[in-house]
Amino acid sequence: MAEMDTSDSGGHKKGPGVKKGKKLSTRVDLTPMVDLGFLLITFFIFTTTMSQPTAMKLFLPKDADKPEEQNKAKESGVITLLLGKDNNVFYYEGQLASDASNFKSSTFKEIRTVLIDKKRNTPEKDLVVVIKPSVDCTYKNVVDILDEMAINVLKRYALVDISDPEAQLVKISDASATAGGASN
Amino acid sequence: MGRAKLPRKSTNIDMTAMCDVAFLLLSFFILTTKFKPAEAIAVTTPNSVAAKVAPQKDYVMVILDANGKVFLEMDDESKKEAIANALNSSRNLGLNTAAFKKSLFFGAPFGSLSSFLALPEDQRKGDKLPGIPVLDTANNELVTWMRVTKEVYMGEKEPAFLLKGDNAAKFPAFKAIIDAFKKNDILKFQMVTSPEAAPVGTDLWKMNQKGEKIEE
């Protein structure tokens, strides 16, 4: 304990010649000090950065110049994700149909179920995810979609440049998605 | 009949123990806290489930801010000196080697790099600087930067190539950075993110529950 007991209530009596001093308590009120202590604690708790930034690894493939060196993927196992403006995601499975009938629209929230479905229905060695970011998407979108690969433990994926017809389709769909959102 | 008298108890609580704990915690937080250095370039990184901590030394970091400006940061001073000398001899830029060595990051086209170095440290703020031009594919200066950096590190352990991008940065700038890496055969790099837990019910979450790790 921090306080000292100076009161002479111990029972033993002082000698007759000893003058009784004035009783002064040495008890200090610690409440403000505790207040201050906790104030500082809360300050340091809130300002401290416990979470270190993490790093996500990305391995780039070496560009294969000759077509025969490029990786071949089975058409049935390929799903292509296209990243558009305003966090829109579009996808199609296999080859893009000439009338774009298999071109579907989705969002970052829903794409996980699409990917999980695809993973369940495809043999693991055939499954390839192709990611094609358009010029309008943000860095966050790309990291999010790569993160989605990690979350769903999809091991084969590739970041590929978007082709012109696809870019056109994304642009049109982006515009209609925005218009649809505005009318709702 | 009189009731039995309860012994009167003092309502005073001894604060000493509490005070002790409070100050113990306080000293813990004071000692463990590490203030973030004021960053010249404001970047809000996206979240990812990656669990590996970003390397804190021996790194070469490309920073991409919200406006698509690109900056280069590295920590090894002797390497920076070598880079300054290499740039001076190959491009005849007339850079002040000492200032180059001391500068934490670089964010100007080669043409105005010496005037960038002449700026006092506290005026080198991300939003006022031009950044390294990357978007012009024919004249992507980051390619040169990366080439020089790779040459400087030649024969030694490669530094960790980091990319720290802002949420709002657009893809073309990111693509240009990837191209700059690719052209110099830097095929492994890491993206700095903020940690995030794996969503419940996903495959990664199940693996984490079982204690499995994804091989890298």
Brief description of this entry?
Chain A is of the alpha/beta class and 184 residues long.
Characterise the protein shown here.
The complex is a heterodimer of chains A (184) and B (216). With 184 residues, chain A is of the alpha/beta class. Chain A has a domain at 74-183: Nucleotidyltransferase, domain 5 (2-Layer Sandwich). Chain A is built from 4 helices and 6 strands. Chain A has helices at 31-47, 111-121, 139-151, 164-183; strands spanning 54-59, 78-83, 88-93, 104-107, 128-133, 157-159. In chain A, helix 3 (139-151) links the parallel strand 5 and strand 6. Chain B is of the alpha/beta class. Chain B has a domain at 55-195. Chain B has helices spanning 16-32, 77-91, 97-102, 113-118, 141-152, 171-183, 203-210; strands spanning 47-48, 59-64, 70-74, 105-106, 160-165, 188-195. In chain B, a hairpin with a 5-residue loop joins strand 2 and strand 3. In chain B, helix 5 runs parallel beside helix 6. In chain B, 31% of the residues are buried.
- Give the total of beta strands of chain A: 6
Give the oligomeric state of the chains in this entry, treating copies of one chain as homo and distinct chains as hetero: heterodimer
What general form of chain A does the structure show? elongated
Q: If helices are DSSP runs of H or I spanning 4 or more residues, what is the number of helices of chain A?
A: 4
Question: Architecture of the domain at 74-183 in chain A in CATH?
Answer: 2-Layer Sandwich
Given as residue ranges, the uncertain stretches of chain A (5+ residues, pLDDT < 50) are none
Helix residue percentage of chain A: 25-40%
The SSE order of chain B reads: HEEEHHEHHEHEH
What is the radius of gyration of chain B computed over CA atoms, rounded to a whole number of angstroms?
26 Å
Roughly how many Å apart are the termini of chain B? 84 Å
CATH class of the domain at 74-183 in chain A: Alpha Beta
Question: Which whole number gives the mean pLDDT of chain B?
Answer: 79
What pattern of helices and strands is seen along the backbone of chain A?
HEEEEHEHEH
Rg calculated over all Cα atoms of chain A: 34 Å
Q: Tell how many strands the DSSP assignment of chain B holds.
A: 6
List low-confidence stretches of chain B: none
Largest sheet of chain A, in brief, is: 5 strands, mixed
What's the story with the biggest beta sheet of chain B? 6 strands, mixed
- What is the helix content of chain B? 25-40%
Q: Structural class of the helix and strand makeup of chain B?
A: alpha/beta
Please work out how many helical segments of chain B DSSP would assign: 7
